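Hey everyone, long-time lurker, first post.

I ran two proteins through the pipeline my lab uses and got sequence/structure pairs for each. Pasting them in order. The first:
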Amino acid sequence: MLKNIYKYKNEAGTDEAGRGCLAGPVTAGAIILPEGFANDILNDSKQLSKIKREHLRPLLESEAVSFSVCHVFQDEIDSINILNASILAMHRALNGLSNTPSFILVDGNRFKPYPSISHECIIKGDGKFMSIAAASVLAKTHRDEYMSKIHEEFPMYNWKKNKGYPTKEHREAIRKYGLTKYHRKSFRQLPEQLTLDI
């Protein structure tokens, strides 16, 4: 059972989606849930079916005290690296909250202090706290929606299905068609990129 709060009322949870992808943005969600909020379905977005995530998203968005979602796109990922881009996406999502949180709960073990508000990093926090789980659902659903949209432009990579992750099908398409403007050029797109032809 996920806990509603960690220490304080008005806590914000934040999490990101798309960190390990070869294409598209890394997307972060931040959310403050009302005191006493409860939901039996809510869990880490990776543990939920697409149908459950899509059912939860409007419910979370309508019941939240405040929520925000932010994409950091491939060019910025390439210039500052994926870890910094993930943290930046979470900071920007927190910037977008209309209410100032009392405290920030962060999924994972890496974060940079957010101005004037204390935070705690919680490993596998999306399976422990409702606000982090809710942020993970928002990040995942908003990112999936974006990847489905750009799929229409480049259907041969099947981003509608693989969402930019390094599936065998996605890598085969890169081998055949090359990279698009949505690919992260700093990422090792194909396994053989590790070998040097000397």
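...and the second, right after it:
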Amino acid sequence: MSIFFELGQRPDEPGPPISGPTSYPEDVTARLSADAEKIIARYPQPRSALLPLLHLVQSEDGCLTNAGIAFCANQLGLTSAEVTAVATFYTMYRRTPTGDYLVGVCTNTLCAIMGGDAILDSLQDHLGISTGDTTDDGRVTLEHIECNAACDYAPVVMVNWEFFDNQTPATARDLVDGLRVGNPPEPTRGAPLCTFRETARTLAGLPDPRSGGDRVGDATLVGLRVARERGMSAPDPDAAAGSDDGAPDDQTVATEATKDASAPGPSATVPPEPNTAETNPDATDSHI
């Protein structure tokens, strides 16, 4: 009597199973192998390269496929079951075909109460799809996402992990309309948009051809400006290690004097108006 065990995603694993062809054509395998060799060389243990290799094969197919799983396993000397166990744990690895633009609406606490749920509902109606689905033209895949550490710009929509801040249902509809007609708008911060597959190559650790990713939002810099106004800075680790006289240094005195003070309320100068020297972090804050 023989027993057949199918290795891979557990039957009770949430989400659709990984599917698709089981192997790549020879030319695709050769091309991906050249990229994989560069990635694996960065790690003392080859299996440590699994996460970037999963991004690499996702850049080929727009999602994970059986062929991609098998490729990663062969490159790293792992079983397909071991690769699948990792691949199904992380939400950034897609199991179904993804459009050119993965549009994620944050519905975590702050974004939700600032209108994130309304934005998601509006986009589902406008695009005629549910979360996790892709438009018929293959341009936009819609999903709800958890917090992406941009609460000071809530509600936030992300497109291929680039930020579009302070959104409304109307601006979000304009955003996806631009994506669908081939006129992607500039993100609020960070680098210009590229396609989902190009993003996956960058996440794999391969060179990013884009430039202009140094834009920082004003709200991000408020804490830095307040610290400057109060004469606060990070302590010098070398000085702290070499001081043993027990006397408080200037930084300790400044910290003790301000630690219980209330944070300043919104004003016309915090943050300052755009186009001033203070709003250009490259001028004085390139080390931050």
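Reply from user beta_strand_b:
Welcome! Quick read of the second one: The chain is about 40% helix and 5% strand. Residues 276-288 have pLDDT under 50 and may be disordered.
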